[in-house]
Batch of 2 targets.
Target 1
Amino acid sequence: MRRPFSPRRPATAALAWCSALFATLGLAACGGGGGGGGGSGPVLAPATLAYALPPTTWETGDVLAPVAPVVTGGSPDAYVVAPALPTGLVLAPTTGVLSGTPTTPTTPTIYTVTASNAGGSAQTTLDLTVILARAENLAAKAAGTYSDDDIRYFLGRTHFAAKPADVTAVQAVGLPAYVDAMVDASDDVNAPLEATATGLLANATDPVGMEGGFPGQAQVARYWMHLMLNNPQPFQDALAFFWHDHFAASTLPIESNATWMMVRQIDLWREQGSGNLRSLMLSMARDSMMLIWLDGVLNTKTAPNENFAREWFELFSLGIDNGYTQADIVQAAKAFTGYRLRFDAVTGQAYTQLDLARHDTGPKTVLGVLIPGQNVTDDYQAVVDATIDHRPVAEFVAKKLFEYFCYEGPTNVPTDAMATLLRGNGYELKPLLKALFKSEAFFSPTSKAGRIKGPVEHLIGFCRATGLTPIDNRAVTDPAAWPQNLLRTVDTFLTTCAQRPSQPPSVNGWPVSEEWLSAQNMLDRVNAVRECIRDRTDQLAANGGVDPARALLSANPTSVQAVDELALLLHVQLTDPERTQFATYLDTSYNATTGVVTPSPFSANNAAHVAERVRGLLYILVQHPTYAVR
Amino acid sequence: MSHPFPPSLRLSRHASRRDVLKFALGSAGIAALGPVVGGRLRAASGAPLGNKLFVMLYLDGGCDTLNAVIPSTLSNYFTRRPTIQVPNASSLALTGGPGTTLYRLHPELHTVRDLWNDGDVALVQRVGYPTANQSHFESQDIYAHGVRGSFAPLGIEESGWVARYASLYAPTPLGAVSVGMGRPTHFVGGTSSPLQVGSLASFNFAVDSTYTNNHAYRIQQAKTMLANSVVTGTPAGVRDAIEQAHDLSGQVQTALSAYETYRTNAGIVYQNQTISRNLKDVAALIHGGFETRVFYTGFGGFDTHGDQGNAAGAQATLFQRLDDAIASFATDMKNLGQWDNVVLGVFTEFGRRNYENGSAGTDHAESFSSILVGGGVNGGAYGADVTDTHLAGETVPYGVDFRDLWREVVNDHLGANAGPVFPEAQPVNTVLGVC
């Protein structure tokens, strides 16, 4: 949503004075002169023309409230301006009132306004410049201007949370260098991390040599939760989750002999999510999970199934009715024929395979591009290329990325700039991602106020920021039960909150921003955090007997300092009264039965205070309206 | 096929077109939070609600209703179900009340029989939709969406029909409530976020039991912060939603407590089974006088591919649980003076085959018999009957489009215009007269 900016223009009071003056002079002008009506005497020309508008610089999107001209002498009946005003600003031709909303940047320009009537004319000049609004500007913020708040906000969006160690790491190298390194590392392999994640997929009943090949749906979901919680390069999973939401598929109708396909698909987003968009989309189209999910394995030359072809255009590459027709869907479906579902004869594991006998080998025409008939391979690359090379796929995907990481409803300006960057780099995503996360647009107030976190960011973010992850006590007492049980509770709560990774509600993906707002979802999120803060025994046992919540505070903070430290940790923006309220909360012992409030000065070195009040304040802070806003 | 999970997060592979076609009501795409006493939220829109109540009771898995509402005069029923048939010696006659000799009830459905005698039961035969789909997920979606084909030509977003009803006629979070069903597809979409709870007791800010005093203090602190918060823009929507969570959950917990006192004093007993507990929660909301007019609940286990049983056995146990729940609920509603306002409709995602398979069970099929109970029901048998010719085939084909059944409940019982709730044209329309 766009917020109107105030243009840099004179104070309203001055404007009111000018308007009053105009009214007075206007009347005098009309009433003055000899003869009056009937046209029997000469018409009095306008003498002077002025606008109460000093040299002005606007941002695109600024709303200019109407400014009326101040005229002495005769009353003009026509106004013109040269050169033409910046696009979006208008000069009313009979009243000379200036108004509008500039939409396009200009160089500093002098505009001459001429007010005339039959008797003559008067002129004045306007010195106006329009610059690109920050919220629309893909150019990088000036080096050295990234504030601590910028850094925390950046980490919240790309790392699920702004952990103090990560804030320090960014400050050490500066945000631009950090962004470059972050994007470059986002497809790195982390063998130890991935080994522990893969271990979660194994079952005792797995055939020898196929350990992890038959995971249950819960195991698949927890595989990704483990990665999200523990990845030292969390941007990899934050970006992968974007692609999962965009190319949404779910394991809910999938049997355990095929669930490995979702693991493979998650790996696809993590491995190729910052690579080449063309390659990514081709890999997605041929991906086994996608082939099952959207009926690719049912699509044959004798029994065509249009499900994937339709979603390819409508949801994945262009958007509804954006440059394709039903004929294109039919032709693309023909091109997508040939894959089938097979089952391993020994283990029963499902897999997909190209069967050219089922492939429509005739020529197809998709988006005006002829795909010659052949029977050597599938036609997936041809459809991907036809779409990317002949339609605004770059614009569509750029907008999806922008809306996911910045704010909804931008003008075309930043997304067109992103698309140009994407095309100019042969559809490599890294240059685009680097530019996006350094940009004025990303750091604009519009973007910072922009969107509401989904439950994954809400809960995974809380766990990463605080280290307070709910631990099933079986994990602590029975090492053999780790690590699956470690994630059981997180899974329970993400499922209750309706955002279980690997199970989006439909091919449309998850709700967006305000669509998450319901009393129920907010309550479910708070209950998830309650689980995190109340799991003291297990967290202590897993932390060598020390409450991990103690580490969230400095050596000996006052209650006010403690409030600020925790608010900063969760990137909650408190008002002064709220800060005072919560400092009092820390300094208080409360009897719920009698309602008696007893002062009890807070000490971070009092274990009971940490267990009760620090954890309690975290529980309160996640209910602050700014916590859920990314 | 097995169901590792309850019917939550139902999928659809159909596009929502949400980028272009928003559900054309008020503030499209933004959940209407509805009115809260003393809060700062928008007032509910729409016509005033009547006092009629509709409870949807879903049997998850595809219930073999041929063994529930038995076509007892048809020889093929017996010849094709040698071991899983319910013999006439066991089943219950329906000659009382509106009277029919064509059907008998499974012996466990004795409460339903008693209510039939009172004229409070409608049995609607052969409910289904054009071109049957025997996939659990696909068929569940069709029943939930109220749409057989595509949403695109209808000009509305993909949504459950209860969500559409609630958005139009009961747009507060409590306007429609689902109990014990996860996140049913019936409630997906729309603009009003009707409540979906596991149980009413769980719609609560769970306590930190190690520090109950401080937990109460935290809740008080959070509510104070929210009440004093002056954020604008996006955070204001968050503030309103969390405030509403506190207000509504408080109201619901208070109502639950008051209901338990009433129920205990009135001596009304519910069994400790899933469907009985679910209907007890429904009763608590009714007792509490909330604005809820549509309730959605159910239970599972009906996918009886093997060892189905007959007059006794696995399916019989399920029917016993269903009957017990209906019995308690009927007693409760009569005690509250609400029975005449109630229509409770039992449905499933498909019926099952006419014949038993090699595992003494039945496989997926098409149409089913729907049982409706309540004082708001016009008792009797409805829909074109099952015939021996039907039973000679694989499945009993549908005769009544399910939309016609629910349309009558919405139009004639709830008193709301069902047109926008079920906008898709149907090849077959039947006027039943069940409410």
Target 2
Amino acid sequence: MQLTERHKEYWQRNLKITGVLLAIWFVVTFVMAYFARPLAEITIPVLQFPLSFYMAAQGSLIVYVIIIWYYARKMGALDEEYGVAEGDE
Amino acid sequence: MSAQVSSNRAFFNQLKKYYTWYTGGFIAFVVVLAALEALGLPRLYIGYAFLFATVALYAGIGIMSRTADVAEYYVAGRRVPALFNGMATGADWMSAASFIGMAGGLYLQGFDGLAFILGWTGGYCLVALLLAPYLRKFGQFTIPDFLGARYGGNIARFIGILIAILCSFVYVVAQIYGVGLITARFTGLEFTLGVFVGLGGILVCSFLGGMRAVTWTQVAQYIILIVAYLIPVVWLSMKHTNIPIPQLVYGTVLQKVTEREKQLTADPKEQEVRAIFKQRAVDAKARVDGLPKTWEDGKAAAEAKVTELKAANAPVADINAAEKALTAYPKTEADARKAWTAQIGSNNARAAPPLPHATPFPSGNPDPVKNEAERDTKRLNFIVLVVCLMVGTAALPHILMRYYTTPSVNEARKSVFWSLLFIFLLYFTAPALAVLVKFDVYSFVVGKSFSDLPAWVASWAKVDPRLLSVTDINKDGILQLAELTLGQDIIVLATPEIAGLPYVISGLVAAGGLAAALSTADGLLLTIANALSHDLYYKMINPNASTQKRVAISKGLLLVVALLAAWTAAQAPADILFLVGAAFSLAAAGFFVPLVAGVFWKRATKWGAITSMIGGVTLTFWYMAVNQVWLRGVFGVTDPVNLWWGIQPISAGIFGLPLAIVLMIVVSLLTPAPDKQTQDLVEHVRYPNLKGDTLNTQGAVG
């Protein structure tokens, strides 16, 4: 089995998407946790949560759900674009 | 292909119809029970009705989906639509610890408890981005299957089997224990009997229909558990904020809790009670320091008192009390040291002012330098625990296995999204529940006189003093916060009563907890039985076994493993919560690196994977064994506890994980690159569909 340039490009783009999404995941999880103490001084308007509590209890979770939703959508489109989707014989 | 798509769609619509009817039927069942309760049906019968109706329901689904077909038995025929696989994964994932324990943990630990919320949801990002689509493309049946195929043979597979069994067994014991606890509390059955009733429910389902039955039961269980979790919280939110969306509005409640904490910290009566506990801790410390003399003196005094009372013909009650005190007195000096040291700890804990719920990594230490150091250690522990839980999530075989059951790679990707969405529903509610209950307790229980405490306080104190106890320490007739102790498990179980809901909702919550525990236990048992029957027996011992024989052996093993797990649970091992955490650390250190490297790094070799798994698990296990109280007892470790950077043993995986990474890289580079066939396999799993690719790893032959 020989991979074409298109195939290699598909994999590179997949790696890039994965890398960017993991970077977002890292920031909302670990950077937020590391700076939780100063961030606790900020209160979110209307909802009245301290920022670090809100992120750990809800905000980061919402970001996780969006990350996975975006990945599924984006990769589905990428499969089609590069002709590697299931059913593309 | 289009025929396939339309048949999938028809199947999806059919499932949607079934589960809509099912949900309606379940709600009707609850409403009927509520009506019967209003007419005077005793509480015990409501408990029985929930227990037997739900277990019978799961058994019914199990019997309807019974199968002896290999692909059906191991991977539910690979036609579970993304949405339903998401629900099944949600139930598979959320265990008794999530359902019953988590909100309680958040109540007791405040901000620091949120590590569990982050870790147990964020791990799905790793599952989605690094594992699920590739494992689905690989196909086959189990996680050791992948290790065996990617890392050339039976050594990697065998180590995979051992790790899968180690972490799954530890975890399943905790689930069965949870089943026993709930059954016992809500029906009055004995604990051991409760364990075996629950076990029946687990077995009839996974035994008859394997993954197929477990999948459809888990969907049903998810619906029950999420309804049961949300109703009381929404009600409590109505009670305190008049808005039925607790997740949105508890920020203001949290502010009120923070204010109340400040009041309680400064309150003179609270300080008085805390001072009493402080003094008790000082006394206990003096007794420990004075050993062995204090133990001898105490024993002599207790004996003297009995003799004296008997000689003086004192009232029988006094003599009995004195004799009881003598029997309870530590038998040996070593016992005394242990008991009194524990007293120092528990009294000091109760002498502390209330924990500030919204503050990250709080420390009560008055010395500013030590205070800062303690807060930094807490932050470090928070972060490493999140790492272990996340990476562990992405490495637990019973979860990864679920993504083998979807019809395609793209469905697997979508399915992770649905999984996390359904899990998220419960996980973003739990912190709200903790804050609402705390507000209720701080405002409507603390500061009341003992004679007019809410009814739920007295009724739960009677059930088990470890769950709830109140003692008037300073004899002022008013309950101070420091006089109240709450156990972790009570928060969810008592919420319906705190919110003023009828008993039928308490029954519903118990049914939800049972669903959570049973569904997770099902998935775990299946993982263990499959690792033994498919990987060990079929792939390594007898590759010529007929399909009937394989399924039959799997069923037999399931029975044996289930009984073994129930037996272990009935022994009630000391530290069950630690065991659950340990499973995550072990999985994180053992599986994550070889699985991810197997897809993303073609150069990863057999020996890299083998040394990485062995090294990661060994270091993790060793760190736990020398530092965790219960394991130290099991292995007879007597060296002093020596924590590296103050990291708790539950997060031991944080040391195993980097070791696994280093070993994987170094050993792989030192050994020859994998052969062409293995490299082709890596290409094969990277692309959902590759032209000219002749590999077929689906293995779904009947």
